């Protein structure tokens, strides 16, 4: 039995190590190439850099207007993810607990909406919020957040929907019998139990919004509103990209997300153990 | 129920608060920036730039221009490279009037044929021959950049093979080109050619060259549309594909065994480092070449046959590749302000400096005293000076169609999956569907 | 399940729980989509031109566009090639990183890094691998079929897109599976262990049924992503060689935004939407029935 366990754990590590190498090498390549110039990157992307010169990072921070674009990205991502999470959890919960025709229809509609090719609503979005309502000029960042909440709710509701089903109804019943209203019950009983799912959904939403280029490129027109993916575009060329700046820029952009995910992990574990105590 | 309502109100407030916070913020920072500080009597214009790589220089140019013209407010916007929606379309759809837009020369007879104002009365027409005409024959496009394409060669590799200084215009027949390849091979370079086959290169650039057999390439386009031009029996059309066969042949081409397959970076790397000597591309190739090499480069004309007196064999295709067009829908005051900007580029010292020294663009104007430092750009500028240029043939076709619709067939031809007669039919049929 | 006594209260709850979502959803998706539908009935060549009503002409052109159906068929092949592998691989990875090995947080984080690195850099790195690295390995080891660049051969180029897609998506799906696996109650697992079930039986009888909600989501997402594939297609092969790897999204984008027949492109996008909506709709409908309610 012991030997089998050991063999199993060895196999697990082996598989993880292999996938680790396969999955992480592009990240490793980026790390390595962020210290090289264009010639070295083109000639031998796999070689190690000659020196650890942080000069290009400084240049990138300057050219990307890093602190402004970083702040914009944080504000947009944080608010969008927060509201998507809360609204989607509420809606999914209600849809599961109250499967009326209307709610089922709404659910189907939202699932279907995820399949809409984004390219087919690009022009309508610009037209409605630019030419007709002028929100693109008046309040681009709030508009962007509104759009993210709208686009993001479908997938999040879809994911919550399955998980809400697996929450025992007895707990809610008790709370309702105690005289709590339904919203109170939701926030006191259900939402905490959805914590692990919420963190996962938040992570997926952060991954999407943090790196998204298309939507901000349509809505944001002024320098001071730009997010990091938009600012990164200054390093692209029609025939030749400025890799020596593009790669450090990308690295600076994704590092915060990686760090946040490592922290998020801890929260998942804690959320689960709390759920177990109940 | 009260609590429910309260909670909902909190949500609404939270939403509206963030909305307020956001708009205040952008509002306050906007008022600090120059464009919001415009007073009455000032003209505000929007000018767009289609070359993402000169975005910084474009903005600087706008600032310098505004310093010289305090009564004009310029918003300079650049297209990001690789965007799906074209900047002009995007801004127009969002309700803005772009005063002056940069576009490809073929656009003013195709996609944006009703967009531009007549510029034929402008002073700068006296200093250039490259003004681009719209369908009615009036100059509507200000030639912003001159670019050219041909056989890009690595000087030191070729000079080592030929021994001594090399005159690229001495290669004026296909046989001489073949002989050059043999010499380069003999000097120890296994594959003289690194033939990259990107769709825009083989279709828009290479495959439109046959149009230059007529003084005015558009006459051939008209014949093709009318179905009266027979490609398969046309010696010039065939001649360019004979030369292409030579460039792509396994004997000389680094990728001869599998001639297709995303070799752009690798080809420039090879020629830059001197592992190969020649590739087919335009002056923009230097962006890639300079990354790996301090070498010098030049252009050899693409030979079409073995007649050394054929002008096609002695000239390089070069012409305007980006034009500035002023919007009919803009107010007269805005149009005048945009015209001022064009004059500033041509006649103001700072404007001339912006175009050539800062943006490294070959100027279409005789009076610009500056010279680009990039050797391929310089070669184009010299060819322009010496009158050794043919029209930039892709300007006479719809470049998007060639890149998307016709390029696959041309690539099939290169991969030997389609015969030349079939290719001729495909191109002829395409033109018959064009109005 | 919910039985509100008063109708007013029920309406209040409905508004409270679904109201905000409906408002935002309508603003971002429903209204623009409706307008987009209207645009398919116009003869818009580019977004800049004035709009003229043209009836169903665009749909007729789109139906007759053989290149659209060819790219659609290729996309179906692509869907078949990717959906199964991504789900299996994602599940195995999730299983490994929740098995209690040390450093599992580190592994979880690292396995989704491919997803963070956008299409452009990804395309460049993989182009280098397919055009230069693999051929040079083939050359050195004398492996004939590896000797030439992958992206110049229509079959190899197709598989190159498949490989990169799997590699990019498996980690993402892993995150969703991890959430599902964590939700499997420990006591149920322990009980079945005490009952004498072996690892395989536990997986089949306990874990997999409880993982259905995750699979509903991942299969849906992989189906949808595969049908809509664009970024990897564009940055890796750009449809080449000779247009043989042009998937349907790329075809639609070319029609709408580069060949200047916006209305037709828009109509093809709607057709794509309907086809994929039917397929994924069936998938969600049937797999939702397998979910176990506690």
TrEMBL record, chain A:
Ranges that cross the membrane: 12-32, 74-94, 106-129, 141-164, 185-210, 245-264
Predominant location category: membrane
The protein's name in its UniProt record: Carbohydrate ABC transporter permease
CDD domains noted in UniProt: TM_PBP2
Gene3D superfamilies: MetI-like
Family the entry assigns: Belongs to the binding-protein-dependent transport system permease family.
Record PANTHER family: ABC TRANSPORTER PERMEASE PROTEIN MG189-RELATED (PTHR43744:SF12), ABC TRANSPORTER PERMEASE PROTEIN MG189-RELATED-RELATED (PTHR43744)
Organism lineage string: Bacteria, Bacillati, Bacillota, Bacilli, Bacillales
Gene Ontology BP, a term: transmembrane transport
Localisation: Cell membrane
InterPro entries the UniProt entry points to: MetI-like, MetI-like_sf
Cellular component terms (Gene Ontology): plasma membrane
Signal peptide: none
Species in which this protein is naturally found: Paenibacillus rhizophilus
UniProtKB/TrEMBL annotation, chain B:
Keywords assigned: Signal, Transport
PROSITE patterns linked to this entry: PROKAR_LIPOPROTEIN (PS51257), SBP_BACTERIAL_1 (PS01037)
Name of this chain's protein: Carbohydrate ABC transporter substrate-binding protein
Protein family (similarity comment): Belongs to the bacterial solute-binding protein 1 family.
Origin superkingdom: Bacteria
Signal peptide: 1-21
InterPro entries in alphabetical order: Bact_solute-bd_prot1, SBP_1_CS
Gene3D superfamilies: Periplasmic binding protein-like II
GO BP: transmembrane transport
Keyword Signal: yes
Automatic annotation (TrEMBL), chain C:
Keyword Hydrolase found: no
All residue ranges annotated as the ABC transmembrane type-1 domain in the record: 72-283
GO CC term (a single one): plasma membrane
Transmembrane segments: 15-38, 72-96, 116-137, 157-182, 203-223, 269-286
Major subcellular location class: membrane
Gene3D superfamilies: MetI-like
Similarity field: Belongs to the binding-protein-dependent transport system permease family.
Identification of the protein by name: Sugar ABC transporter permease
Native organism: Paenibacillus rhizophilus
């Amino acid at each position: 039995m012991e030997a089998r366990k050991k063999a199993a754990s060895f196999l697990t590590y082996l598989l993880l190590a292999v996938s680790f190498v396969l999955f992480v090498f592009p990240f490793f390549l980026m790390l390595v190439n962020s210290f090289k110039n264009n010639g070295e990157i083109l000639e031998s992307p796999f070689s190690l850099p000659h020196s650890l010169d942080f000069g290009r990072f400084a240049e990138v921070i300057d050219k990307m207007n890093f602190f402004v674009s970083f702040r914009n990205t944080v504000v947009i991502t944080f608010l969008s993810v927060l509201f998507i999470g809360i609204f989607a959890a509420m809606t999914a919960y209600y849809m599961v607990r109250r499967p009326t025709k209307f709610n089922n229809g709404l659910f189907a509609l939202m699932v279907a909406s995820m399949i809409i090719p984004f390219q087919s609503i690009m022009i309508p979005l610009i037209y409605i919020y630019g030419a007709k309502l002028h929100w693109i000029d008046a309040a681009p960042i709030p508009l962007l957040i509104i759009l993210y909440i709208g686009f993001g709710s479908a997938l999040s509701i879809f994911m919550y929907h399955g998980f809400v089903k697996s929450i025992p109804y007895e707990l809610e019943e008790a709370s309702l019998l105690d005289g709590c209203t339904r919203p109170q019950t939701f926030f006191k009983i259900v939402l905490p139990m959805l914590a692990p799912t919420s963190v996962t959904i938040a992570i997926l939403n952060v991954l999407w919004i943090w790196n998204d280029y298309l939507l901000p490129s349509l809505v944001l027109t002024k320098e001071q509103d730009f997010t990091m993916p938009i600012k990164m575009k200054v390093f692209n060329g029609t025939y030749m990209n400025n890799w020596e700046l593009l790669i450090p820029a990308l690295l600076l952009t994704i590092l915060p997300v990686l760090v946040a995910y490592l922290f998020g992990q801890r929260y998942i574990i804690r959320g689960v153990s709390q759920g177990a105590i109940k | 129920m009260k609590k429910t309502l309260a909670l909902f109100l909190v949500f609404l407030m939270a939403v509206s608060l963030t909305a307020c916070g956001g708009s205040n913020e952008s509002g306050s920072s906007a008022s600090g920036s120059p464009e919001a500080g415009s007073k009455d009597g000032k003209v505000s214009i929007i000018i767009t730039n289609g070359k993402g790589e000169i975005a910084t220089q474009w903005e600087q140019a706008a600032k310098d221009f505004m310093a010289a013209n305090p009564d004009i407010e310029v918003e300079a916007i650049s297209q990001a490279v690789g965007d799906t929606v074209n900047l002009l379309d995007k801004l127009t759809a969002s309700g803005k009037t772009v005063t002056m837009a940069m576009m490809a020369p073929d656009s003013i007879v195709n996609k944006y044929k009703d967009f531009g104002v007549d510029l034929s009365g402008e002073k700068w027409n006296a200093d250039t021959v490259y003004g681009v005409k719209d369908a009615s024959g009036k100059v509507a496009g200000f030639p912003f950049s001159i670019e050219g394409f041909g056989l890009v060669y690595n000087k030191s590799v070729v000079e080592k093979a030929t021994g001594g200084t090399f005159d690229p215009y001495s290669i004026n027949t296909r046989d001489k080109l073949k002989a050059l390849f043999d010499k380069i091979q003999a000097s120890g370079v296994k594959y003289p050619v690194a033939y990259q086959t990107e769709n825009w290169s083989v279709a828009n650039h290479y495959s439109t060259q046959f149009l230059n057999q007529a003084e005015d390439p558009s006459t051939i386009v008209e014949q093709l549309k009318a179905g009266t031009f027979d490609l398969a029996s046309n010696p010039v059309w065939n001649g360019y594909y004979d030369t292409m066969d030579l460039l792509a042949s396994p004997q000389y081409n680094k990728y001869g065994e599998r001639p297709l397959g995303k070799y752009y970076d690798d080809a420039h790397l090879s020629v830059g480092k001197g592992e190969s000597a020649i590739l087919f591309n335009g002056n923009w190739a230097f962006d890639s070449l300079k990354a790996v090499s301090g070498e010098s480069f030049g252009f050899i004309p693409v030979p079409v046959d073995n007649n050394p007196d054929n002008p096609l064999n002695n000239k390089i295709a070069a012409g305007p590749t980006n034009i500035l067009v002023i919007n009919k829908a803009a107010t007269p005051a805005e149009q005048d302000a945009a015209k001022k900007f064009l004059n500033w580029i041509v006649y103001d010292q700072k404007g001339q400096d912006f175009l050539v020294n800062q943006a490294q663009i070959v100027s279409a104007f005789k009076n610009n005293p500056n010279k680009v430092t990039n050797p391929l750009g310089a070669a184009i500028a010299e060819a322009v000076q010496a009158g050794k240029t043919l029209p930039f043939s892709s300007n006479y076709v719809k470049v998007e169609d060639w890149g998307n619709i016709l390029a696959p067939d041309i690539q099939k031809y290169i991969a030997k999956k389609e015969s030349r007669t079939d290719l001729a039919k495909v191109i002829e049929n395409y033109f018959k569907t064009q109005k | 399940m919910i039985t509100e006594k008063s109708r007013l209260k029920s309406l209040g709850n409905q508004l409270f729980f679904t109201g905000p979502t409906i408002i935002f959803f309508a603003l971002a998706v429903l209204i623009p989509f409706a307008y987009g539908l209207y645009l398919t009935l116009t003869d818009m060549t580019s977004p800049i031109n004035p709009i003229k009503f043209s009836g169903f002409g665009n749909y007729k052109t789109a139906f007759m566009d053989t290149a659209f159906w060819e790219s659609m068929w290729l996309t179906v092949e692509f869907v078949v090639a990717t959906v199964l592998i991504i789900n299996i691989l994602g599940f195995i990875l999730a299983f490994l990183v929740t098995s209690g090995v040390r450093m599992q947080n580190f592994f979880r984080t690292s396995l989704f890094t491919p997803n963070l690195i956008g299409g452009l850099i990804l395309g460049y790195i993989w182009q280098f691998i397919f055009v230069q690295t693999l051929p040079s390995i083939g050359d050195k080891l004398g492996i004939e079929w590896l000797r030439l660049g992958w992206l110049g051969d229509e079959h190899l180029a197709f598989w190159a897109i498949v490989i990169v897609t799997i590699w990019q998506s498996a980690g993402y799906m892993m995150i969703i599976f991890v959430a599902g696996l964590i939700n499997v109650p420990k006591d149920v697992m322990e009980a079945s262990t005490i009952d004498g079930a072996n690892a395989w039986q536990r997986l089949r009888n306990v874990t997999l049924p409880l993982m259905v909600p995750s699979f509903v989501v991942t299969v849906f997402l992989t189906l949808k992503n595969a049908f809509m594939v664009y970024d990897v297609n564009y940055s890796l092969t750009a449809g080449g060689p000779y247009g043989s790897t042009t998937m349907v999204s790329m075809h639609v984008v070319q029609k709408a935004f580069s060949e200047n027949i916006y209305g037709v492109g828009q109509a093809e996008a709607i057709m794509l939407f309907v086809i994929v909506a039917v397929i994924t709709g069936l998938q969600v409908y049937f797999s939702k029935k397998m979910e176990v309610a506690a």
